[in-house]
Structures are given as structure tokens and as C-alpha cells.
């Protein structure tokens, strides 16, 4: 069982920045791929970014086209934590951000690739 706890969400003006964190339990965190997904009000949950695990895609990072150049995903295996640094935020970035763990280490874009999910953290970007 893997538990994921997100933090760092909040209200920010357009153009601002936030850093989300996701703390994970588990002894083999470094082998997990970790992903961030976003769900806007009334919409489906969509892929934002992922980072591979040592047992899969070896730390490779992937981004949705809408966030490339603005968001950066990273991980600290010593702290069992994955981060999402977000800059130049836009109102369309608003939503609940979920952290997810893929025990196969691959970090695909599909949410069905992920085995465990956090409860989410709200990000609101005002115009």
C-alpha cells in the first residue's frame, strides 16, 4: 500500500508561481514513476506531467503540451517526495491537482497506468 499526500496548492494571480509537493510512503519510492494530473471543474482529469522510476523509464520526464516550458516535475528519492514547480500560471491551470504513483516505473500519460492516488490539492489562478 502506498499513501500519497499532496500540499502546496492555493490561490495565485495569473503569471504567478506555485510549487506542489507530494509525499509518498513506501520503501521503494525510487522505483515508482510519479505523475501529476489536473481536474478542472466539470471536466475530466487530465495528464500534466510525469517522471519515471529507476525500475522503468529511469527518471525521464514527460509533459502535457499545455504546460511545457512552464511546469517542471522533479523528485527527491531521499525524501520520498515529488514536486511540480509551476510558473507563469494561467487561469486555465485552475483545478484540483492529483499526485499518482505507477509501481511499474513507466509514467505513461494515461491515468489507468497509475496504481495509487492522493486526495488532491486545489490550485486556483485568478485573472
Keywords summarizing the entry:
4-stranded antiparallel sheet, 47% strand, 127 residues, globular, single chain, 7-stranded mixed sheet, mainly beta
Write the layout of secondary structure elements.
Layout: E1 4-7, E2 10-13, E3 18-24, E4 33-39, E5 45-51, E6 61-63, E7 71-76, E8 81-86, E9 95-102, E10 116-117, E11 121-126
Parallel strand pairs: 2-11
Antiparallel strand pairs: 1-3, 3-8, 4-5, 4-9, 5-6, 7-8, 9-10, 9-11
Overview of this structure, please?
The chain is mainly beta. Helix content is 0%, strand content 47%. The chain has no helices and eleven strands. The protein has strands at 4-7, 10-13, 18-24, 33-39, 45-51, 61-63, 71-76, 81-86, 95-102, 116-117, 121-126. Strands 2, 4, 5, 6, 9, 10 and 11 form a seven-stranded mixed beta sheet that branches. Strands 1-3-8-7 form a four-stranded antiparallel beta sheet, with no helix packed on it. Strand 4 and strand 5 (45-51) form a beta hairpin. The mean pLDDT is 94.
Question: Can you describe this structure in just a few lines?
Answer:
Helices cover 0% and strands 47% of the residues. With 127 residues, it is mainly β.
